[in-house]
Amino acid sequence: MSKFTIAIHGGAGTILKADMSPELEAAYTDGLQAALDAGYIVLQNGGSAIDAVKASTIILEDNILFNAGRGSVFTKKGLHEMDASIMEGNTLQAGAVAGVHNVRNPIELATAVMHNSDHVFLSGEGADDFAAKQGIKLELDDYFFSQYRYDQWKNMRDADSYSLDHSGQQPEKLMRDKKFGTVGAVACDKNGNIAAATSTGGMTNKNYGRIGDTPLIGSGTYANNKTCAISCTGHGELFIRAVAAYDVSAIMEYKNYSLQQAMDEVVNNKLVKIKGEGGMIGVDANGNFALMFNSEGMYRGVKSSDGTDEIAIYK
Fold it and tell me: Rounded to an integer, what distance in angstroms lies between the CA atom of residue 221 and that of residue 281?
């Protein structure tokens, strides 16, 4: 039986203790711990890595503090468009959705795409239709409404700019205080199988049906038992150009780097060179983990059968 481990993230970026009230910090910490515990219980009971990452991600999607599911940001049109993906390291099966509306848990829909369709990636109306056909739980627009997100969007909706995530400030301040709102989880189960999941509400005031790295297998999410499982959070366009999640796997496979070394190369060298800000979490099939970011902070946590149980926010 191998060491079993789960790691989660709730976004990265300019996250400073000076900007955080004790109450808000406690709420974020509690939300991260709840998600971590949900996935860990699955692993502890002999469940699969894929079920563990899904369980953790659902808790984060249901938490209005995080930009995924219920807490998703508003688009230019004042709507919620959500993206998610999930991948299994044993079979290399994967499922992804982009631009979905009213789906309570987009990660559930991505999992249904993986298991119950002949496809990997569905988008827009087609993905919404598939959700209805699969009996995936839907919610009215009101469920996704957050006053905080609405005020954030109201500050920007008449501008051509967009925001990478949560701040109640004006557009110019929003662009300075970059926070990349994505949630995700990676896990290694008792059988040494690994998996990754990622979910997001995207960018505030995004236009033209913009899609970031989150639903793209290889960019925002990747899992392969031979190497690693990775979930990313950051400025999606740069993570797409770097094929960031798969790049960690390739470096491990072809250069024989450890998980820590490969993630360090991608996050602190390759991404930095192209001004790709953000971070990622990873596990390998031995239950080793790494949580790495080149921004001021990343909402993150890890729990393992070796006794590790940590939650952190700042650098």
Answer: 10
Closest CA to 3 of 311, 285, 301: 285
Give the tokens for residue 309. Answer: 């149980």
SS3 breakdown of the chain: % helix, strand, coil, rounded to 5? 35, 25, 35
| Confidence class for position 87, pLDDT limits 50, 70, 90 | very high
57 a catalytic residue: no
- Report yes or no: 145 and 157 within 8 Å, Cβ to Cβ: no
238: closest CA among 164, 299, 188, 166?
Answer: 164
Q: 122-147 b/e with 16+ CB inside 10 Å = b?
A: bbeeebbebbeeeebeeeeeeebebe
Out of 5, 182, 204, 214, which one is annotated catalytic?
Answer: 182
- CA pair distance 228, 7, nearest whole angstrom: 13
What average pLDDT does the chain have?
92
Q: Biggest alpha carbon distance in the chain?
A: 56
- In whole angstroms, what is the distance from residue 101 CA to residue 299 CA? 25
For the segment 192-218, what is each residue's pLDDT rounded down to a tens digit? 999 999 999 988 888 888 999 999 999
Q: Residue 297 in contact with residue 314, Cβ under 8 Å? A: yes
